[in-house]
Design goal:
The chain is an alpha/beta fold and 302 residues long. It is 39% helix and 25% strand. The strands form 4 sheets. Strands 5, 6, 7, 8, 9, 12, 13 and 14 form an 8-stranded mixed beta sheet that branches. A two-stranded antiparallel sheet has the order 1-2. Helix 7 links the parallel strand 10 and strand 11. Helix 1 packs across helix 3 and helix 2 crosses helix 3.
Amino acid sequence: MGSALTFGAMELRHLRYFTAVADALHFGHAAKRLHVSQPTLSQQIRDLEDEVGSKLFERSGRGIRLSQAGALFRTHASRALEDVDAGTRAVGALRGLTTGVLRVGYLPSFRNLVVPALLAVVRNHPGVRVTATEAVVSRVERRVADGKLDVGVAIASTRAPEVEAEAVFESRLELVVGKRHRLAAMKASARVPLKQLEGESFALLTRGLRARAAVDSYLASTGFSPHIVLESNAVGTILAIVRAGLAVTLLPEPRFNDAERLPVRALSPSPPSQLAALVWRRGAPRTAAAMAFAEEMRRVKK
């Protein structure tokens, strides 16, 4: 059996083959993805079923579906593969981050905080391959909990019990305007009374996003009803219409790179603050790449 990782008669490849079929629910598609023949894949699944003592798949019309035993086994098989992958990444860390993968998920409103940290990791550790995903907070937390992300950047008030949050900076809603907007000439330290924004056109993040919920809560508490001309789940789209002078926006303490720097003003009354946080899978080992990224994020307020 050579150096193959085994669990009794079960080998690591059995788990990979099983999860591929469980994901595709089609032996042909899974075999193609795994670069093996369909008869070989079918035999491997039969061997696995013999090992666990239960049928893992059932016929469903022209396709297949997970049996009750298969659905239960999938949870444990996925966790085992994730732990093996985490171990592989940890071993890679011993080589001084010359290789490895960094998987990061973050809220769209934090893009201009996260991207510089990612760039620093790429610059300092060119052998690390980075995968960055923008998503709503629930999806970031879920993917961290499932081991599909090494670390997330979200709001500190996490909801998933499988994850833990490490607060790294305080975030507060602020007003962003175009460079030729009437409020752009105000002192950067000045606060803009919300009543001065009556009649302004607003571009806001899409409803359902945590940052938008913070905006709606703040405006509702003040009795202010904005005239919304555009909603988008992409911060870049929001900033484009602001930059064009067609709207203003509210974002959680936005940060901009040199190419998109826009006037940012504090609001009056002052919106409540939220703690932005690194989100980790509870009890799981942290890869060296994730720790390097986390250290860059911790520098945000330094």
